[in-house]
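Form 7-S
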Amino acid sequence: MSWTPDYPRTVPERRPPGHRPRAPRWTLGFDAPLSLVTSDYLALQCAGPDDPAVGPFLERVRACHTGRDGADAPEAWELLAFTDEAGRHNLVHLGYWRDATAHARWLATAPLPRWFAELDAAAVPFGAWHEVVQVPLDRVETIYSDPRRAFGLAACPGTRRESMTVNGYFGAARDRLPVSAIDPLEAAGPHRRRARPAASEGRRLRAECGHNTAVIRSGQYWQNAEGEQLADYTEALEPKLMAGMAHLREAADAEGTLSLRVMTSLDRETLRPLRETSVLGHFHTLASLEGWAAGHATHAAIYEHAIAKNRQYGEARTVVTWHEVFVLPRTAAFAYVNCHPATGILPYATSVLAVEPDDPAADSPAVYGG
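Output:
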């Protein structure tokens, strides 16, 4: 039995009558009901992988998953890295929880979030940021091209990949969001770049994004690809993907892009890069993301290539793609400490508030329904 919410539809679905998908796809099912799902991104922003701050950061990461400090640890977690717009190295701890109370306890007691809460923005020689995405289950949708490996939220216990047919047409992602049956998920205001960059360096900021902001993590996994399939990914599909991401960054004002990061997955023990990446994107609304997917040549190139290769290789396909989408209710607040002003949602935040490390607000990087 699946516990995904199901509402009587009052908003028309996007699925065309009689639609049959061109390729099989799977979505995430849950074995028990739950109130909120959480993905928690806590990152170090520094000069490079050899920066002196990396070692202490990793020590706190590992402490969060062992002994007494690991009591409320994420049910699934990853290490990722990327170079941002300013050339800074970002090392990211990503955790997933099905239990929002366990996550709240982790924020209050675990070494990594406590370290972040106590940073003195005016004194540290590095930056750090904390973005928590926490939503009811009816504001989550997922899709996987292969059910045999658990990615992202799917790595949590008590979940499973289920075959589906709500895929293969524009608007399918919206239709997979249970809340879309009763809510058009519209924005409360326009997409607008802030008139002046946030004065973020040397300060601790809380930045808010607007109602119904859409957050997508879209993954690519080719760790097991060899020969022809490996060459196809690196020489054909990956360049098309990067062209699409470059467009979404460069046309951010027109496309509704708030933030876009292409992250590489790391081996948790050796820190070696894996043949796995994921794009973490924040968009003004789901409609912004849909507009690019439905109408821009860069997405058409990615989509048609993936469909063609799935047809060619079938179950022997060793390149796996997937995504998870969260639509944020009301307001979410993200925290940035001594970061450069292009970090995360800072260029488009609906509000930015400076806080002190001992301010109670500094201990709450995200507020659900706040």
